[in-house]
Every structure is written in structure tokens, then in C-alpha cells.
Design a protein that fits this description.
- The complex is a heterotrimer of chains A (103), B (702) and C (519).
- Chain A has 103 residues and is an all-alpha fold.
- Chain A contains 3 helices and no strands.
- Chain A has one domain: Helix Hairpins.
- Helix content of chain A is 76%, strand content 0%.
- Chain C has 22 helices and 2 strands.
- The chains are: A mainly alpha (103), B mainly alpha (702), C mainly alpha (519).
- At the B-C interface, strand 1, helix 6, helix 7 and helix 29 of B face helix 14, helix 16, helix 19, helix 20 and helix 22 of C.
């Protein structure tokens, strides 16, 4: 079995876990964590396809992932601060109760 | 050129200036007004006499006695409209007559109008009248003549309506002005036609005037569309003016009503001068009237003059018939005037200028005498005008009676000593020798019989028997405004003051003497007007049936007077309300005559009513047709606007609104998707991810 | 005739007056009235100066001013006057003070009222002096604005309807005229009356229009006729010619009498002025084509309006119809002049007479009608607005001077010789009779009916018994008498010495009649 397949399976699993978390959890924190999981699944794919792809000498996968992690960090910071702000405003982190943007 | 010819304008101008000054004089300036009017009239009279003497002198020296003085008035295009005055025997005779009679009537008016509050105004109008009348006479231009003609009509209007608070006077003045204007309009057209054909309206202008042979030949040579020669057409149109002004049938209806004016006015304007202006007009344009005959010589009388003759003879008979059955002393005289004017027209038609004019002059004297006498009677009877309520005045008013009798006999044409005899006889003689028809002669003769009859009737009613005037009766005839104004004295009839009787006697004297200027034996008047040699010739009586005509006309007069005596003199009228002696015998005819053949009613029912109807129609047209068309356009526009607004509101706006609604509704639908829940969005994304992945995988495999 | 811009100054005087009057608006009514009257008298004095300096025998226009204006439209500021223009200027200048003197009843917004009167006068001056279509049309239209507000704001109970009718009606005419002029402009590239007239007389105008505006559906003749009809309607409404007159009786009746004086005295002449200045030189051929119907219109105008006047019971309405009647004679004469084009001396003489008659009649009607409405204003002031024919009677007893003077004006309107109305009518009939015999003969009926209703007025208002109500009516005051003297005097002067006017306008009349010679 090609090691790549294993990585991809792992990444798919990780993604599925993240997606399930993001969709099912009511707590905004946990949804954010789910999203981080999905991101990391994507990162894992990048690394894996780079490492076992046709041009491992070029550092493209690593570059993508580094940026992606940077962006994820920034996004997490923004997401967390939004959640904090919302919490301060409405005293809850339950996503079901946060529907003031309802059309 | 002689001074008097150049300054002939002074004759009308003096009264005109007087009228102007009186117009701005206050009501209280009575003496000033009277003296101005009389003073100016006397000066005019002196000038007239001078002019007259000048013409006589020229005539005796055998020089040309037609002198004109023309001047340019205003220009149009390359031409000038000229006016001017003329001095010829016709003018000379007329100015002397008008100024003399006018002067006497002015003097008489001082007495007659003494108690009127508008005394000043009265003299102003009289002076204006005199000015216009004199202007009409001296005018050497048909335009100037027409202008004066109209102003004369205006003063007649003002003076008939002098007692304006009386509605009958107001109506009569309007009627007079309008009826004469009906005649004036064809006259006006005749003038413009003549002007366009001959290029001038000057009568005489050294060969180029419109009454001179060159122009006349030109006029006779041309034909109108209906085949008549232009000269005849113009002459007939001009004659229409004369018909209106001179009260000829069928436009005579205004003249009897004009008697609502003060009696001196009736005497001056509606007997002696203005109404004769029509006759004078025909005499003035006589060359035009007779142009056809003059040039062709085929017929002795031109078509225009034939019309004049017939209209004149019908009027003469017509007026005389009606006069028989009138009760108002002034209306009798008015109808008599109409009849006499008819005589004059007839005389012009059959005999020529001198025949008609001679009767005009003599008539002016005796008819103004009669009117002034009637005025004196009315004055004496405190405003009473109904002859049934008079009677017995012969003894009470001797001077009036005597002078009135003179006038009456002159009017009847009593032989030998009265001027009316000579002038009327001449007309009858001319009619007798007229070669076209004898009917005018018989009509004239019958009218003469009637004249003698109705004058006798009037004399018996007024002066014979005993007085039937009742105390307070004069005022009982309510609408008669003259009563209050003319009346100052008690109810007993009395003689008038000297200021009134002296003019009466002067006129009576003239009436007696004037006739001898125109007898067949010494026809000075005729020779003066027609430039023939004058000599004393008693043989003239024997010529051309002159003598038989004279005898028969004398007999007619005696017969008329006799009939008058038979009906009214034998058994004097004894009560004011007794039926008329003639009316008792033939009530039906008498009633028809008394109502003047119902002409007024006929005109009322036809012309007046038709015109009023037409004015209603034109108002209706204005309101419903013209305005209706505009309203239809308006409503059409409005309807279009409403339709436009409907389309705007419902189609254009509606479509836009619908579009907006649709957008809004679809927004609402989309808004439902917008749950506001992050996870529901995530679900969509997740599902999409799976679907896309599945698709990709499926594509990759395929 | 120096370079001094006399005409521009003359037009500016009333405008300046209007501004001053508005500025002193807060002052007492008397001050406002006197100021306005003062300005109108200055304008009158200026007009008299122009009259004095005018050369009657010179050809063409005098006091001309020409400045380039809108180069794109080839439009110039071109003003100047000939005898006709001068006469109309004088008439406007005489009528305006009369209108002001007759506006004593105006008590509301006095300064605005008089400012509008002055503006209207300025528009009249502008219209009668403009020689280029563009600013002639501007003045023509602008005149409607003060007139509209004068009628609307100070008029009688139905003034809203009247003002609207007046405005819309004349607007419709103006628009058709504007369209026609645009057509002419597109063909000739010129708005100058002098140029257009010259082209028309050389026979080039219509072919050129047709060539440039070839309209598939219409033959050239019909195109020309449509253009003619547009211009004709514009003027016919203004004069007015029956059946385009229905705005007039209501407007004249509802307008304050001072305004009616301006409307009838001067504004109605704008239409006739157009007939003479534009229609006759430019559209002679078209007029000849439809001469018979045009003559019927003229006769209908004369006869029907007289009959209708007779049936009225409101004095103002009566004189409104009488006004139509009097201007109908001018229309008749203008059509008569257009009938023949020959150069025959006899024919020319008739045309000259008719033309001079039209000029005189225009002036005299303005003067007489203005005076008559003035008398009505004085009567209304005394009677508290009552002016029905049957409401009075026997007024001569209490108002002898009023009766006498108004009688003079009435007889002048009737055309009595010796007063101003006669000579104009005489010349019109003299000229028209040989040219259009039957129409003229029928029109004489108008003279008769006029006499009937004028004597009817005298009879019902001044004669007869005096009703108790009017027993205390005061006669004319000294001031009123003094202000009437010049006007009544002028009536006599013009009646006895028409050469005063004819001497000045005759040459222009001849020129106008001659321009018809060669098309």
C-alpha cells in the first residue's frame, strides 16, 4: 500500500471528524475547533501530496502549509475574539441562539 | 375769388363756435346761451344774405354763378381727400331760408322753453344743429355733406330725446336715429361707390368734380352686374339716404314719433330744415340723378328720377291719408310734413330742381309757422296736444289763430295769395305734363284734396266752437312730460307772449309774400335756380295746360275745405270724448288710418323681431357653436389627458410597481434561507462539498 | 436719428418703472399709483419725441438698432419702427396711463398690480418694435404673463377660468405660429422680418421652404398652406377673428377694467400688427387662395359680433363684442388688400385707402375702446361694481357731465363724423368696396347694429326714469374731468384733422400695399 493512501485516509478521517464537529456542536468554541481540524486535514493533504508527489525537491507543499497555518492562526484569533465579543453581548456561545442576522 | 365765397365756412362755423361755448357753459348761463345762439345765427343770416346778394349780382351781370372753394383735407396713398364749399343759387336760397327760419325759431324758443331747466343745453343743441345743417348746404363735397348729414341726425336725436326722462321721448329719439341710419347706410355705400368710380367726391372742381360732365359720362358708360348703369345705381343708393332723412315711404315711421321733442325742434328740424335735407340732397346731386337721361336723351326722365317720383307720390298720398285720422295736433302736422316732402320729391322727379326746391322753401315757412302756431296752442293749453280737448281757441288766442290760418291756407294751397298754392300748383302742373304716366298727378291731386280736408278738420277742432280743455286734464295724460315743462300758467287757454307771436307774424308775412317769387307769370325763383331768362309774361298761364291745372287744383282745395266744413264745421264738436264725425261714418277705414296703416306694428313684427331673433341666434351660436367647438376641443384634450394619466398610473407605473414587488417578494424568499445560524450555512457548504467531490470522483472515473 | 438707442431705452423705461414700483411697494397706495403713472407718462413723452423725430417720407425702418445675438440661430437683436410701429407705440403709450387711471378700485397688492401693468407695456413696446422673429416672439409670449396674472389675481368671480382660457387659447395660437416660423427658419436660415419679407416678395420663400421641407404626403401648395394656417391661427386668436374669439368676452368681462383697457386698447392690436407685418407680406399668395372663406370670416366677425353685442346685458361684455366688431373692419380691409396683385393705378388707390383706413381704425379703436372701458370703470366705482345694462336708467339727471362725455365716446365708437371713428371706417369701406364689393356691402349691416346697441345703451342707462337707488350718484370730479379732457379732445382732433396721423403713416401704408405688387 502506498503510504500516500494512508495519509489521505487519515486526512479524510480528520476532515470528517472536523466537519461533524463543526456541524453538530452548539458551542461556538467547539465549532471553531472542528474547523481547525478540517484545516489541518487539508494541511496534511498538502504535505502528503508534496512528499509523495512528482516534485518533492520543490518546497511548494511546505510553503502552502506554513501560510495556511499562519492564516489559520489569524483566523482563530479573529474567530475567538468575535466569539468573545458575541459572548459579552449576549452572554452565550450557543450558536442556535445567535441568529440576529436572520433574514 | 370773392371774399364771401372763400369765407362761406363762416356761416356754419359761427353757430358751431356758439355750440362749443354753450357746451361748456354752466346750466345757469341761460341768457348767455340764448344770446350766443341767436347772435351767431343773426351773423350767419347776415352773411347768408350777403352770399345771396352776391349770387344775384353775379346773375344779373351774366357771370358764372357757380363758385367753389376747395381745400385738401387728408391724404391716402398718392391722393388727397378734398373738401370745399360751394356758392350757387341753390346754396344761396337754402342758407337764407335756414338761417332766417332758424333765427325766428331760436327767438321763439326763448319764450317756449323759458321754464325748462335744461334751457342752456337746448340752445347748445339748436346751435349745433344749425351749424351742421348749414354745413350740409354749403358743402361742395359729398363726404362733407354726409358728415354734416350725420351730425344733423345726431342733433335731431338729441333734441327729440331732449326730455330724456320720458321713456317715449327716449324711444322716439332712438327710433329716429336708427330709421334714418337704415337709409344712410346705402347712402354711405353709394358714396364709396361713387368715390371709387369717379375718383373724387367734390361736386364741382373745375371740370373734374363728380357732378361735372366728364365724370357723369364715365359713370353712365359703365354697367353694373345687373345691367343697370352705374350712375343709376349710385343715384338710387344716395336716394336711400334721402328717403330716410326726408321721411319718405317706407322709412317715414320715425317722423311722427319725433314729435315727442319740444315743438320748436319739430318746427325747425322736423318740418322746415332737416327733413328737407333729403330733398336738398336730391337737388344737389341732380346732375347725377338725371345723368342717364342727360347723356342718352332717349327718355325724358332717368330711371333714378322715376323712382324718386314714384316714392314721392306714394308718400304724398300716404301721409295725407294718415293725417286725416290723427288727434294729436303735432302728429297731424307731422304726417302732413311727410306728405309735403313727398310732393317735393315728386316735383324733383317730374319737374326738376326748381319745382321741388320752390315747394321746399315755401313749405319751410308755412310749416314752421304751423308748428310754431301749434306750439303756441300747446303752450296756451298747458301742454295739451289732443285736438279733441281744445276748441274755441280762435277767440282766446287771436294772433295765433290768425297766423295759423295763414299757414293752414298756404298748406292747403288756397289760390292766389298763399305761397303754397304757387309751389304746389307747379308740382301738379309738372306731373300733369309728365310724359311717362299720369298716375302721380292723380295721386298728388287726391293728396291735395285730403290736405285741405284734414287741415280744415284740425282748424275746426282747435279754434272753432267752445273750449273743451278740462282743469287738471293736461296732467292726466300721464306720460306726457311736456305738460310739466311747458306748463306754468293756469288751465285757461291764453295767448302766448310777444317773443313767440312776433316770429309767428313774421313767418306769416313771408308765407303770404314768398309765393309771388315763383308764379308762372314772373318765375323769378325758377329762373334764378335754373339760369333761364326772366321776364314778366302773363301768357304763361295759358301754356301747356297751366290754367286748367290751376283751376282744377283750386277746385280741389275748395272741395276739400268744403268737405271739412261739412263734417266738422256744420255741427261743432261738443265733447272731448265724442267720436270723430268722419270716424262715425267709416269706422273701419278710420281706424286703419288712425293707426297709420299699422306700419309700426308691421315693422315690429317683421324687421325688428327678425333682427332681435338674429341677435339671439348669433348669441346662441357664440355660446353653443363657437364656444361649443372650443369646449369640445377642451373636453377632448381633457379626455386625452385622463387617458394618458390612466396609462401612466396603471400601465407604466403599474409595471414598475409590479417589478419592484417581484424583486421584493423574491428577496423575502431568499431571506428565508438566511437563517442567521452559522451551522445551517455550514451544512450547505458541507453538502455542496460532498456533492462536488462526488461529481469530481464520478467524472474522474468516467 | 443719431446712434442713441431710443427704442431700447423706451422699452426699458416701463421695466425700470416696474422695479421702482415694486421697490416703493411698502409706501402708500397713492405713492405707488403716482410713481407708476409717472413712468407711463415718461414713456408717453419718449414716444412723442420719437413721433417728432420721425421722417414720414423715408423708406424702410427708422431708429434701427442691430446687434448680433444668437449667432447659432442667425438671430439678431434688431429693432426699428416704421409708421405702423410708431403708431402702435403711441397707442400703447396712450392707453397705459388710461388703464392706470381706471384702476382706482384696485386695493390689494397695489404695487404688484402696477408693476405688472408696466411690464405689460414693456412687452407691447417690444412687440411693436422687434424686427427679428426670435425676440418679437419672446415679447409676444411674455406679454401673456403679466396679462394672465392681472386677470387672475384682480379679476372678477370667474377670473380663474377667464385667465386660464385666455392663456391657453393664445398659447395654442402662438405654438402653431412658432411651428410655422421654425419651418420658415429651417428653409431660410433667417428670423429677420425684413429678410423674410424680401424673400417672399421676390417669390423665393415658398419654393425654398418646400424644397427644404419636402413632405411626402403634401403637395408644395399644401405645405405652404399649412404653414400659412399656423401663422394665421396665431394672429386670428389674438385679434380675434370669429370663431377664434370665445376667450375674449369672458376675459374682458372678468379682468379688472384697467387691465381690460390695456387688453383691448393695445394688446388686441398685436394680432392686427402681425397680420400687417407678417401675414400680408409673406403669405399673400396663400391668402389669395383661400380669400373667399377668409372674407366670410371677416363678414362673420363684423356682423355676428355686432348682433351678439346687441343681445348682451353686461356693459363690459357688450363692449367686448363691439371690440371684435370694430377690429373686424380692419380684417376685412386687410383681406381686401390681399385680393389683387396688379399695379393698376385705380386698384392701388383703393388699396392705399384700405390700408390707411386700417391704420386709422386700429388707432381709433384703441383710443375709443379704452375710453369707453374707462367710463365703465368710473361707473363701477360709483355703483359698487354694478354694470348691468338694465340696472340703471335716467343717469343723465344726476350725472350730466358723465353722460355728455361718455356720449361722445359712444358716438365715436358708432362712427359719427367729426369724431375719430369715422374717417377710418370711411377709408376702409372706400377701399374695400371696389375690391370686395359684396363682403363690404354685407358688412355695412355691422354699422347699423352697432348704432342699435349703442343707442340702446344710451336709452337704458342714461334716459328714462331715475331709480331711487342711484339718486345720489355723484357726477365726475374735477380731477376726472381734467384727465378725460385730453382723450376726448384727441377724439375731436383726429375726427377733424386725420392728417395728423395719416401724414405720418401714409408712406408706410403705401409701402405695405406696394409690397403686394410682385408675387
Amino acid at each position: 500500500m502506498n503510504p500516500l493512501t494512508g495519509y489521505v485516509f487519515l486526512s479524510a478521517l480528520l476532515f470528517a471528524v472536523g466537519l461533524a464537529g463543526a456541524l453538530t456542536r452548539r458551542n461556538a468554541m467547539l465549532v471553531l475547533i472542528g474547523i481547525e481540524l478540517m484545516l489541518n486535514a487539508a494541511n496534511l493533504n498538502f504535505i502528503a501530496f508534496w512528499r509523495y508527489g512528482p516534485h518533492p525537491e520543490a518546497l511548494t507543499g511546505v510553503m502552502f502549509v506554513i501560510f495556511s497555518i499562519g492564516v489559520a492562526a489569524a483566523e482563530a484569533a479573529v474567530g475567538l475574539s468575535i466569539i468573545l465579543a458575541v459572548y459579552r453581548h449576549s452572554k452565550t456561545t450557543n450558536l442556535d441562539e445567535m441568529d440576529s442576522l436572520k433574514g | 375769388m370773392n371774399w364771401i365765397v372763400r369765407n362761406l365756412w363762416l356761416i356754419p362755423m359761427l353757430p358751431m363756435v356758439a355750440a362749443g361755448i354753450i357746451a361748456v357753459t354752466k346750466r345757469k348761463g341761460r341768457m348767455l346761451a340764448a344770446s350766443l345762439a341767436i347772435g351767431s345765427m343773426s351773423l350767419s343770416f347776415l352773411l347768408s344774405v350777403w352770399a345771396f346778394a352776391h349770387v344775384v349780382l353775379l346773375r344779373n351781370q351774366g357771370q358764372i354763378d357757380l363758385q367753389v372753394w376747395n381745400f385738401r383735407w387728408f391724404q391716402f396713398g398718392n391722393e388727397w381727400v378734398s373738401l370745399g364749399w360751394i356758392l350757387n343759387p341753390l346754396t344761396a336760397v337754402m342758407v337764407v331760408m335756414v338761417t332766417f327760419v332758424g333765427l325766428l325759431i331760436f327767438i321763439y324758443s326763448i319764450g317756449y322753453m323759458a321754464h325748462d331747466e335744461n334751457f342752456t343745453r337746448f340752445f347748445g343743441f339748436l346751435a349745433l344743429f344749425a351749424a351742421a345743417m348749414l354745413g350740409l348746404i354749403v358743402a361742395n363735397s359729398l363726404l362733407l355733406l354726409f358728415m354734416c348729414w350725420e351730425i344733423v341726425g345726431l342733433t335731431s336725436y338729441l333734441l327729440i330725446g331732449f326730455w330724456y326722462s320720458n321713456p317715449r321721448a327716449a324711444a322716439a329719439s332712438k327710433k329716429a336715429f336708427l330709421t334714418t341710419r337704415i337709409g344712410d347706410l346705402p347712402f354711405f355705400l353709394g358714396i364709396v361707390w361713387l368715390y371709387s368710380k369717379s375718383g373724387t367726391l367734390l361736386f364741382y372742381n373745375g371740370g373734374t368734380g363728380c357732378l361735372e360732365p366728364m365724370s357723369l359720362e364715365h359713370l353712365v358708360a359703365q354697367r353694373t352686374t345687373i345691367g343697370m348703369c352705374v350712375a343709376t345705381g349710385i343715384a338710387l343708393l344716395i336716394f336711400c339716404g334721402a328717403v330716410g332723412k326726408s321721411g319718405q315711404f317706407p322709412l317715414h315711421v320715425w317722423l311722427p314719433d319725433a314729435m315727442e321733442g319740444p315743438t320748436p325742434v319739430s318746427a325747425l328740424i322736423h318740418a322746415a330744415t332737416m327733413v328737407a335735407a333729403g330733398v336738398f340732397l336730391v337737388a344737389r346731386v341732380y346732375p347725377l340723378m338725371s345723368a342717364h337721361a342727360l347723356v342718352h336723351g332717349a327718355v325724358s326722365t332717368s330711371a333714378a328720377l322715376q323712382v324718386v317720383t314714384w316714392v314721392g307720390s306714394i308718400t304724398a298720398l300716404f301721409g295725407a291719408l294718415i293725417a286725416v285720422a290723427q288727434y294729436d295736433i303735432k302728429r297731424i302736422l307731422a304726417y302732413s310734413t311727410i306728405s309735403q316732402l313727398g310732393y317735393m320729391m315728386m316735383g324733383l322727379g317730374v319737374g326738376g330742381v326748381s319745382v321741388g326746391m320752390f315747394h321746399l322753401i315755401t313749405h319751410a315757412f308755412f310749416k314752421s309757422l304751423l308748428f310754431l302756431g301749434a306750439g303756441s296752442v300747446i303752450h296756451g293749453c298747458s301742454g295739451e296736444q289732443d285736438i279733441r280737448r281744445m276748441g274755441g281757441l280762435g277767440k282766446l288766442m287771436p294772433f295765433t289763430f290768425a297766423t295759423y290760418a295763414v299757414g293752414m291756407l298756404a298748406l292747403c294751397g288756397f289760390p292766389l295769395f298763399f305761397s303754397g298754392f304757387w309751389s304746389k300748383d307747379e308740382i301738379l302742373h309738372a306731373a300733369h305734363v309728365w310724359d311717362l304716366s299720369q298716375i302721380p298727378f292723380y295721386m298728388g291731386a287726391f293728396a291735395a284734396l285730403l290736405t285741405a280736408f284734414y287741415m280744415a278738420r284740425q282748424m275746426y277742432y282747435v279754434f272753432a266752437g267752445s273750449t273743451r280743455l278740462e282743469v287738471g286734464e293736461a296732467h292726466g295724460d300721464g306720460a306726457n312730460a311736456t305738460a310739466g315743462m311747458e306748463h306754468e300758467h293756469g288751465p285757461v287757454p291764453h295767448e302766448s307772449p310777444a317773443v313767440m307771436t312776433v316770429p309767428l307774424m313774421t313767418l306769416a308775412g313771408c308765407t303770404l309774400l314768398l309765393g309771388f317769387l315763383g308764379t308762372p307769370a314772373w318765375p323769378w325763383f325758377q329762373s334764378f335756380l335754373e339760369d333761364t331768362r326772366l321776364r314778366v309774361d302773363f301768357g304763361a298761364f295759358a301754356r301747356e295746360g297751366m290754367f286748367p291745372v290751376m283751376i282744377s287744383s283750386s277746385l280741389i282745395v275748395f272741395l276739400g275745405l268744403g268737405l271739412g266744413w261739412w263734417f266738422y264745421g256744420r255741427e261743432p264738436v261738443d265733447a272731448a270724448d265724442a267720436p270723430d264725425h268722419l270716424g262715425r261714418r267709416v269706422p273701419a277705414i278710420f281706424a286703419v288710418l288712425g293707426h297709420a296703416f299699422y306700419m309700426d306694428a308691421l315693422y315690429d313684427k317683421t324687421f325688428v323681431r327678425a333682427n332681435i331673433a338674429f341677435s339671439r341666434i348669433s348669441t346662441w351660436l357664440d355660446r353653443w357653436v363657437w364656444n361649443g367647438a372650443v369646449q369640445i376641443v377642451r373636453y377632448g384634450t381633457l379626455a386625452f389627458a385622463h387617458m394618458d394619466s390612466f396609462i401612466d398610473n396603471h400601465v407604466v407605473n403599474g409595471a414598475f410597481d409590479e417589478g419592484c414587488e417581484g424583486v421584493s417578494r423574491s428577496g423575502q424568499i431568499l431571506a428565508k434561507l438566511q437563517t442567521g445560524r452559522v451551522q445551517s450555512y455550514l451544512k450547505v457548504i458541507g453538502v455542496a462539498l460532498i456533492v462536488f467531490t462526488a461529481l469530481l470522483l464520478w467524472r474522474a472515473n468516467a | 436719428m443719431s446712434g442713441f438707442p431710443w427704442i431700447s431705452v423706451l422699452t426699458l423705461v416701463p421695466i425700470a418703472g416696474a422695479i421702482v414700483v415694486l421697490a416703493v411697494g411698502a409706501a402708500s397706495h397713492t405713492v405707488v399709483r403716482r410713481t407708476a403713472l409717472g413712468f407711463s407718462l415718461i414713456a408717453l413723452a419718449l414716444t412723442l419725441l420719437l413721433w417728432y423725430g420721425f421722417h414720414p417720407e423715408a423708406n424702410g425702418y427708422q431708429y434701427q438698432e442691430m446687434h448680433p445675438w444668437i449667432s447659432m440661430l442667425n438671430a439678431n437683436y434688431h429693432v426699428g419702427i416704421d409708421g405702423l410701429g410708431l403708431l402702435m407705440l403711441l397707442l400703447s403709450a396712450i392707453v397705459t396711463p388710461i388703464g392706470m387711471l381706471a384702476s382706482r378700485q384696485v386695493e390689494r397688492q397695489v404695487s404688484l398690480y402696477f408693476a405688472l401693468m408696466l411690464l405689460l407695456q414693456a412687452c407691447l413696446f417690444g412687440t411693436f418694435t422687434a424686427l427679428s422673429f426670435i425676440h418679437w416672439f419672446i415679447f409676444w409670449e411674455m406679454g401673456l404673463i403679466p396679462a394672465f396674472f392681472l386677470v387672475r389675481l384682480w379679476g372678477g368671480p370667474k377670473s380663474a377660468k377667464a385667465a386660464m382660457q385666455f392663456l391657453v387659447y393664445t398659447m395654442v395660437g402662438s405654438i402653431t405660429m412658432l411651428m410655422s416660423f421654425l419651418a420658415i427658419f429651417l428653409a431660410t436660415r433667417s428670423f429677420d422680418f425684413v429678410d423674410i419679407g424680401r424673400m417672399a416678395q421676390s417669390g423665393r420663400l415658398m419654393p425654398e421652404i418646400v424644397a427644404r421641407l419636402g413632405w411626402h404626403l403634401l403637395t408644395p401648395e399644401h405645405t405652404a398652406m399649412v404653414i400659412f394656417a399656423g401663422v394665421f391661427l396665431g394672429f386670428a386668436v389674438k385679434v380675434p377673428v370669429i370663431p377664434f374669439h370665445t376667450w375674449l368676452p369672458l376675459t374682458y368681462t372678468e379682468a379688472p377694467t384697467g387691465t381690460t383697457i390695456l387688453l383691448t386698447g393695445a394688446m388686441s392690436k398685436m394680432g392686427l400688427y402681425g397680420f400687417l407685418r407678417i401675414l400680408l407680406p409673406c403669405f399673400g399668395v396663400q391668402m389669395q387662395h383661400v380669400l373667399t372663406p377668409l372674407l366670410w370670416l371677416a363678414v362673420a366677425t363684423i356682423v355676428l359680433s355686432a348682433y351678439t353685442a346687441w343681445a348682451q346685458t353686461d356693459l363690459k361684455r357688450m363692449f367686448a363684442y363691439s371690440s371684435i366688431n370694430h377690429l373686424g373692419y380692419c380684417i376685412l380691409a386687410i383681406f381686401a388688400v390681399a385680393k389683387f396683385t396688379g399695379t393698376d393705378a385705380g386698384l392701388m388707390s383703393q388699396k392705399f385707402a384700405a390700408m390707411d383706413g386700417v391704420f386709422l381704425q386700429m388707432f381709433n379703436h384703441g383710443l375709443t375702446a379704452a375710453t369707453l372701458f374707462w367710463f365703465i370703470a368710473m361707473l363701477e366705482k360709483r355703483s359698487g361694481g354694478v354694470r348691468g345694462l338694465n340696472d340703471f336708467g335716467g343717469l343723465r339727471r344726476v350725472m350730466p357731465v358723465f353722460t355728455g362725455l361718455m356720449g361722445i365716446a359712444l358716438f365715436s365708437s358708432l362712427g359719427l363724423p367729426g369724431l375719430n371713428g369715422f374717417i377710418g371706417e370711411f377709408l376702409i369701406f372706400k377701399g374695400s368696396f371696389p375690391l370686395v364689393t359684396w363682403a363690404t356691402a354685407l358688412s355695412v349691416l355691422g354699422l347699423l347694429i352697432t348704432a342699435i346697441f349703442i343707442l340702446g345703451i344710451l336709452q337704458r342707462v342714461f334716459y328714462g326714469a331715475l331709480p331711487e337707488v342711484w339718486a345720489q350718484l355723484p357726477d365726475l370730479t374735477v380731477g376726472e374731468r381734467l384727465s378725460l379732457v385730453p382723450v376726448i379732445g384727441l377724439m375731436f382732433v383726429l375726427g377733424l384733422y386725420p392728417q395728423l396721423v395719416l401724414g405720418v403713416v401714409n408712406h408706410t401704408a403705401m409701402q405695405m400695399a406696394l409690397t403686394l405688387r410682385n408675387f
